[in-house]
Amino acid sequence: MHAKSALFVDDFYYYFVVAKNFVNNGSLSFDGTNLTNGFHPLWFGIVAAVYLASGHSDTISLIVIGIISAILPVIGGIKVWQILKRFVSDATSLATAWAFSVIYVCGGLQISYTGMEVGLVLALFPWLLEGLITPINGSKQVFYFTLLATTIILSRVDSAMIVAIIWLFVVGRTFKERGKEPNLIPRWLVANAPPIVLGALPLLIYVIFNLALFGAVLPQSAIAKALTDAPGPYWEPLMFFTEHFGVIWSPVAVVFAIITVIGLASGDRRLFPWVIVAVWPIIFYATLVFRSPWPCWPWYAYPIVASSPAVAMIALKTSGQGRLTPALSVLAALLLAVGVTSVQVRNLRRDEWDQPISAAALKLRDFGETHPGSYAMGDRAGTVGYVLGHPLLQLEGLVGGNRVLSAVRNRQNLLAFLRSNKIAYYVSTNLNRDRNGCFEAREPAKAGAAALHMTATLCLKPVDEFSLDENGAAMTTRVFKINGLAL
């Protein structure tokens, strides 16, 4: 039996399988053949390093990664408390600072426990925000601050915009404090260009690596989610996010919004940088709505958690105007703590292999034991790729390589693509049937109607088929034999 964590989501195993292939075979690939960079690089490096240091042990690796995932938001939460306690002057402000520290830890644990990369951002982001309070002086501090910003971007590439804005705020504050010195900006840039370039060097190397090997700056997963044939907005992401994860996050987001509006109404210009950070989640989700018709997953709530210290600063700065913001802060903390605790206790009580995606993966592993060959699968392929024991081509483009991306971009016939890549078996979940009883296959299946897809009509009987209950709905997995089929 393969080791597994009951907390990690299916997407984590894209990281884990590629990391294992990289450590074991030197192959940066999910299926062992097609090169991929469909991951955030720093977390991938940590997963690979843990697997290598564990002596190639799945069990030890997953335990250690689970511990790291739990520790990271706690580190961030401790730093948040250290920042906020500087502004504590009475019991009211103490309650506010305590509440937001709890929010950071509880919210961080909820999404970091997925095994995804967001925990790294949550551990490091408060240090970046500290730059809005403590000026950076001298080339050495400029280097460290730039390196910190670079590290956060490499932890989660879509954090680049807010990281760059905060970096500019901090640098701009340096100019403001030095007054009207002659030629200040040119002299500062000349003096600090070397530490800035050196601090940003890991990011530059990452960009050059992507361009050289994959022909694009962004990772393949980001490119795959932006393949559309119609301009946005695309409402699927936010509707999916609200439907599945709004019970925990929606009340907290409303509280944050109220506090931010109070800050804006105060007219205090000193709050401007904090307000920008506080509204970052709105900008983040608006960008998703106009960029990608893909659903949002739990870890996409990370901007709400990461921006919460900015909301806390607004609450602390406006607490003298009444008791509304402290009360809202404590309410948000209690809601999040109760919600996260109930979810995680439920998850920890589950058999890690009894979850529908995991149980389906085991059934496919059993099928694979008597049906060797190369496989292809889109949604839910992470755990399957981990346990299958045969090469598995990921058809969504997330970690399938440029070949899959090109096929999706060109709307290639799915069956023709599978045959040209010598795929023996195609696996899919909950395929629709047409009026003739044939199966309508499309990849990526989870992408919305405006996304580009490979499609095919499969008028053939599955060689394996089974259904599992998932939240009261039947999830039917089917395996089709592809080799030897005529187009």
Any overview of this molecule?
The chain crosses the membrane at residues 35-53, 60-81, 87-106, 118-136, 142-175, 196-218, 238-264, 271-291, 328-345. The structure is a single chain. The chain is α/β, with parallel strands linked by helices and 487 residues long. The protein has two domains: 12-349, no CATH class; 356-481, no CATH class. It contains 18 helices and eight strands. The strands form two sheets. The chain has a five-stranded mixed sheet with strand order 2-1-3-8-7, with helices on one face. A three-stranded antiparallel sheet has the order 4-5-6. β4 and β5 (439-443) form a beta hairpin. α6 (138-155) runs parallel beside α8 (184-214), α10 (236-266) runs parallel beside α13 (302-318) and α10 (236-266) packs antiparallel against α14. The longest helix has 31 residues, at 184-214.
Radius of gyration: 24 Å
Shape: globular
Which strand-content bin applies to the residues? Answer: 5-15%
Helix segment tally: 18
Structural class: alpha/beta
Please summarize the sheet with the most strands.
5 strands, mixed
For the secondary structure, the number of strands is: 8
In order across it, which strands form the biggest sheet?
A: 2-1-3-8-7
Q: What oligomeric state do the depicted chains represent?
A: single chain
